[in-house]
TrEMBL record:
It is an enzyme of class 2 (transferase). HAMAP family: 16SrRNA_methyltr_H. S-adenosyl-L-methionine binds at residues 54-56, 73, 100, 121, 128. It comes from Kribbella alba. It holds the Pfam family Methyltransf_5. This is Ribosomal RNA small subunit methyltransferase H. Keywords: Cytoplasm, Methyltransferase, rRNA processing, S-adenosyl-L-methionine, Transferase.
Length: 337
């Protein structure tokens, strides 16, 4: 279950390898440039909704010495490592164990009426991928866990061993865009009768065997889509994002900015739709004048989705699928019709 807001609890230094050596923040300069204009005034509040190892946050704290940071993460281990990295800025940071759709409650409890910037760097962190026992990586044998918050109740193994074939096929198709969802789901249900699923290698093998030989040669590792789908289901990722982005836009002060970095098309679609919705008036096109309170409340800062440069991808292959969208609040909070 979700814990209540706990202020700065995670900022206590603890022995661990240097987290900055384990994560390179994606599209860092661009993200700083997009959010920067909103963070220059003394006391500006930035929310890092996906703190991770604190790479982006550290750059913001360095670049904007008068800004305050609220960092959220659902992964207690990420909070602990980021707290250690950001300890030099402890006066200006508040780190909170929360799922990002809890932002309105977190801001309420911290008595912050509006924020100046918010960053979503979606998906899993390098630390989560690198720690084999968390079960995110399809290329290594590990327990089928995939919880970003290891205090949450449902693991990937629970889903594989309990969902009906139809439910499994639905999540593989919707969240993994897997063409062979039905075949994989039927096979999972047959195989779990013999023995419940516990480890990722068995699932990877099953997926490979369920896909026709010709299809195995395209689209990367055959298990990639199934693992993505399970991870999204375990963490309720898309539903949470659908709630969180409008709430984040609503929390922005006038001229506040939002940046969303997605890593697959399902996330990017939600980001695109949420930001686009704010750029249109909700009155019929044939009305000669837009009544007060019905003007667009967002202005897009990016043209389509921006991608990392070829140099960045060469240096950090994990950045390859990143897509950035950003917008500025152009009508005041509370006036969204
Ligand atoms: C890609 S990493 C962020 C990396 C970070 N920008 C950095 O520079 O170190 C994404 C982080 O977001 C967290 N996360 C993912 N979904 C979340 C959610 N719904 N609520 C809160 N945190 C979430 C993950 O636990 C992970 O630590």
């Amino acid at each position: 279950m979700l814990s209540a807001v706990r202020r700065d609890r995670w900022a206590e230094p603890m022995p661990n390898p240097d987290p900055s050596s384990r994560h390179v923040p994606v599209m860092l300069d661009r993200v700083v440039a997009l959010l920067g204009p909103a963070l220059e005034r003394p006391g500006a509040v930035l929310v890092d909704a996906t703190l991770g190892l604190g790479g982006h946050s550290e750059a913001f704290l360095q670049t904007f010495p008068q800004a305050r940071l609220i960092g959220l993460d659902r992964d207690p281990e990420a909070l602990r490592l980021a707290g250690e990295r950001l300890a030099p800025y402890s006066e200006r940071i508040t780190l909170v164990h929360a799922v990002y759709d809890e932002l309105p409650r977190v801001l309420d409890e911290l008595d912050i009426p509006a924020i100046d910037g918010i960053l979503f760097d979606l998906g899993v962190s390098s630390m989560q991928l690198d720690e084999a026992d968390r079960g995110f990586a399809y290329a290594q044998d590990a327990p089928l866990d995939m919880r970003m918050d290891n205090t949450a109740p449902t693991t990937a193994a629970d889903i594989l061993n309990s969902y009906s074939s139809a439910e499994l096929a639905r999540i593989l198709f919707q969240y993994g865009e897997e063409k062979f969802a039905r075949r994989i789901a039927d096979r999972i249900v047959r195989e779990r009768e013999i023995e419940p699923f516990t480890n990722s290698a068995r699932l990877s093998e099953l997926v490979r065997d369920s896909i026709p030989q010709a299809a195995r040669r395209t689209g990367g590792h055959p298990a990639k889509r199934t693992f993505q789908a399970l991870r999204i289901e375990v963490n309720g990722e898309l539903d949470v994002l659908r709630r969180a982005l409008p709430a984040a836009v609503e929390a922005l002060a006038l001229h506040g900015r939002i940046v969303v970095m997605s890593y697959h098309s399902l996330e990017d679609r939600i980001s695109k739709q949420t930001l686009a919705a704010g750029t249109k008036s909700d009155v019929p096109d044939d009305l000669p004048v837009i009544p007060a309170g019905h003007e667009p409340y967002l202005k897009l800062l990016t043209r389509g989705a921006e991608k990392p440069t070829a140099e960045e991808v060469a240096a950090n292959p994990r950045a390859a699928s990143a897509r950035v969208r950003a917008a500025e609040r152009v009508r005041e909070k509370g006036l969204v019709a």
